[in-house]
């Protein structure tokens, strides 16, 4: 409500000058008040993206820190649009389970993709993550997303490859309904709505996205500019070597025949058949 209070204070100035019959708006009527919620210069949004755990199953953790007072963000929601490269995949069934347990709020945007497909038969996918306020940081948000490695083609020399996870799009939506009802001004030739100052500082463009995870309504989210701690995240993925192809195929075939034989022996020995 701090932003609303500031806006109402600005409207009071406008009404005062309108009632006194001024024909020109003085420059001081539009100067930023001394309230700390509005600043002459915009502080930066800092985004930090890191990957936790080892192996083929990782956790992507995204932290966002605002340079504004949390009072200015009380009615705002943060949405992270994460791009998953072809070398990784997100399991939609795992996301559904995590949503049920209230661990994360994320949903797949891309459809008709195969989580079993290798890297060279896959495409980049998109995930929407509704970030939550960080309990350990008053002006921070964080989001959590489990990701998994896909299988890659074997290499002739190097036994590893790299997957680059680019920084996401940062979207913000602030519920301004209450403020607009208080501060909308209507004159014969003047109609102006005072918006949230944080959006004035950081917004670049608007993006249509669901208002909430369980809400089918579409909101116009502001695509925010930010500063990233890292340019991107690079993951090292182990891959096979082509010189091992014959050995791997031979051993795999031998084990398959051996296991199949043992299963058939057990079926004929312990199974009960009736004609």
From TrEMBL:
| Pfam families found in the cross-reference section | PIG-X
Gene (name only): PIGX
Return the similarity comment.
Belongs to the PIGX family.
Q: Does the keyword Endoplasmic reticulum apply?
A: yes
Which pathway features in its UniProt record?
Answer: Glycolipid biosynthesis; glycosylphosphatidylinositol-anchor biosynthesis
Sorted alphabetically, the Gene Ontology cellular component annotations on this record are: endoplasmic reticulum membrane
Q: Where in the cell is it found?
A: Endoplasmic reticulum membrane
Recorded source organism is Microcebus murinus
Keywords in alphabetical order: Endoplasmic reticulum, Glycoprotein, GPI-anchor biosynthesis, Membrane, Signal, Transmembrane, Transmembrane helix
Q: Could you say which residues form the signal peptide? A: 1-29
Protein name in UniProt: Phosphatidylinositol-glycan biosynthesis class X protein
Q: How does it sit in the membrane?
A: Single-pass membrane protein
């Amino acid at each position: 409500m701090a932003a609303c209070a500031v806006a109402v204070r600005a409207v009071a100035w406008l009404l005062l000058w309108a009632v006194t019959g001024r024909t020109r708006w003085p420059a001081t009527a539009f100067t930023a008040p001394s309230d700390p919620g509005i600043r002459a210069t915009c502080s930066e949004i800092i985004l930090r993206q890191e990957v936790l755990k080892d192996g083929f199953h990782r956790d992507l953790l995204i932290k966002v820190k605002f340079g504004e007072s949390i009072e200015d963000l009380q009615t705002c929601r943060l949405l992270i649009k994460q791009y998953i490269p072809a070398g990784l995949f997100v399991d939609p069934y795992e996301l559904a389970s995590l949503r049920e347990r209230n661990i994360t709020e994320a949903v797949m945007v891309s459809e008709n993709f195969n989580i079993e497909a290798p890297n060279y038969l896959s495409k980049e996918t998109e995930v929407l993550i509704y970030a939550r306020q960080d309990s350990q940081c008053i002006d921070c948000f964080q989001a959590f997303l489990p990701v998994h490695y896909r299988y890659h083609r074997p290499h002739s020399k190097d036994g590893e490859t790299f997957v680059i996870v680019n920084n996401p799009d940062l979207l913000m939506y602030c519920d301004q309904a209450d403020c607009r009802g208080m501060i909308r001004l209507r004159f014969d030739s003047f109609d102006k709505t005072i918006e949230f100052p944080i959006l004035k500082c950081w917004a670049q463009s608007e993006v249509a996205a669901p208002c909430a995870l369980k809400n089918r309504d579409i909101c116009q989210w502001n695509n925010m500019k930010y500063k990233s701690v890292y340019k991107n995240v690079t993951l090292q993925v182990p891959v096979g070597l082509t010189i091992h192809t014959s050995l791997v195929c031979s051993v795999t075939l031998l084990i398959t025949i051996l296991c199949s034989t043992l299963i058939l022996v057990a079926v004929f020995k312990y199974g009960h058949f009736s004609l």
